[in-house]
Amino acid sequence: MTKKTLLILAAGMGSRYGGLKQMDGFGPNEELLMEYSIYDAVQAGFDKVVFIIRESFDEAFRNVIHNKWKDAIELVYVHQKMDDLPDGFDRKIEREKPWGTGHAVWAARHAIDGPFVMINADDFYGRTAYMKAAEFFNTNDKDYAVLAYQLGPTLSEHGTVNRGICFTDADSNLSKIIETLKIGTEDDGKISYQEPEDIGVELKADSLASMNMFCLRASYFNYSTQLFEEFLNDEKNHAKGEFLVPTVIDYTIHKDLLQTKVIDSQSNWFGVTYKADQESAKKEIEALIAQGVYPDALA
Q1: What CA–CA distances, in Å, run from 297 to 35, 199, 269, 288?
Q2: CATH of domain 5-149+210-290
Q3: How far apart are CA 267 and CA 97, in angstroms?
Q4: Is the CB of residue 11 less than 8 Å from the CB of residue 98?
Q5: What 3-state class would DSSP assign to 239?
Q6: What average pLDDT is seen over the chain?
Q7: Under 8 Å CB-to-CB from 167, ≥6 apart: which residues?
Q8: Which residues contact 217 (CB under 8 A, 6 or more apart)?
Q9: What predicted TM-score, i.e. pTM, was given to this entire model?
């Protein structure tokens, strides 16, 4: 059986949320949202969790996580550092915000040597999604996959959101992901967006969206190193450009290196983009505990 890793991106700044949402409690015992992901991954047969965090809150993070989960699954902590760049690049490039999800995953290159699922720390993906990811790894030894969610339920009542809209071919392989910005619901119920100007389709509630849950492999790190170097060679990216995971996936698709399967997650996603989303997320957790999906205390 192939060993599987859960990679949790937990180094975000929470600018729209107004704080470190990955450290806020959502469960009855102040469980972090990501702890429900860890619980689900353990249930699905994952063997290790790698956390991408910032060095500034390393101690506080470990104090919450480590003793609770160390006996359930292997835990590894990796710092996402602004000066962690490929050899030959200036470690002192002036920049305030992190380099993007592509860099966050690349930071784990020394901690992962097999198949892994990447997720956001502040999103809830559902047990079935992890089961489907594990099944994918058990039956496919080359390709990548994206766990897709219907767009409508992922929108926020409290403001616009950004989503990666998925396009597929006739065999349910990913053909492209378009990062679509400021998506919201109008008064007439229509789903609108602001950027890019035209993605080629009308967005609907059942449009497939990536919520940053990807099944990847160690090969990802080779491709991302090459593309991150190309990204850094363009100086216009130094101040505010973002190196994103879909950039690497698009490269593997268009170079015919491998396929990325689009898997219907068949799960209920929810997250906390805005502070006002916190209460509804807590109610979702309460409902799942009442249904017996989770115990009152996870660990």
Answers
A1: 11, 44, 21, 13
A2: 3.90.550.10
A3: 32
A4: yes
A5: helix
A6: 91
A7: 174, 175, 176, 177, 178, 201
A8: 114, 115, 116, 142, 144
A9: 0.92
